Amino acid sequence: MDSDFLKPIGGDTVVQQIIERIKIAMINKELKPGDKIPTENDLIKNFGVGRNSVREAVKSLEAAGVLEVRRKEGTFVTKGFNSNMVDPMFYAIILSQTPDSFADLKEFRKWIDFSIISVAADKAKDKELKLLSKQLDILNDEFETKDIDSIMIADDKFYEIIFDMSNNFLFIEIAKMLRKFTIDSRKKVFNKYIRMDRLSHIVEVRTNIFNIMTSKDTVNLMKIIFDDPMYK
Asked: What average pLDDT does the structure give for the chain?
């Protein structure tokens, strides 16, 4: 393979340079999903680096879901989307040293949810809306029980149905991951509103979102989303 991808590597951050070189090769379509990358010995020879550096770079890309190591077969570029590809970004946000990092995460989720609900409303089919309607009924029943775990399961399912309506795998994976990383903060909000006997407000928000999905009229969606206590 005669390309910039396999030119010798030098410098202090060798592992990162190997990772960057493989990433650029994928961007330039020199390596495509499902392709087998050169062997460890070939990478060592072409990059002019040590075995440990190559192994560490491959392990990092494997952990990120970019490469797949198959015993006796070799190492391949992953086909399709892997949730491991998204995790590092959110861990970086959560583990950052800035005091507003979690607030940034919630704000990001707010805008992602606004975008995905807008797209889903436009694409929603009658069969999907019926499924969403049934889930809203289930969610309303769970609100009556005031059982926090049951409410959160039903609420997550309500939103997952909406996410799936978008038919956009990036939206779906990122939105689901954001809900995963904000589970504790959402649980606190639910508990707070249960204590205040104000679950009706959250019920109203979910009902309004459902009405937007059925009418496909997203004019007031921003106000509804921003009024949801889960984003505050």
From this structure: 88
Long-range contact set of residues 83-92: C-beta below 8 Å, sequence gap at least 24? 83/173, 83/177, 86/173, 86/174, 86/177, 87/177, 88/64, 90/177, 90/178, 90/181
Provide DSSP, 49-117: --HHHHHHHHHHHHHTTSEEEETTTEEEEPPS--GGGTHHHHHHHHT-S-TTHHHHHHHHHHHHHHHHH
3-state SS assignment for residue 182: coil
Full-model pTM: 0.71
CATH numbers and ranges of domains, the chain: 4-80 (1.10.10.10), 87-231 (1.20.120.530)
- Which structure tokens are listed for 107? 């704000």
- Residue 78 sits at φ, ψ, to 5 deg, of -65, 140
Per DSSP, 219 falls in state T
> H or E stretch including 192?
helix 183-195
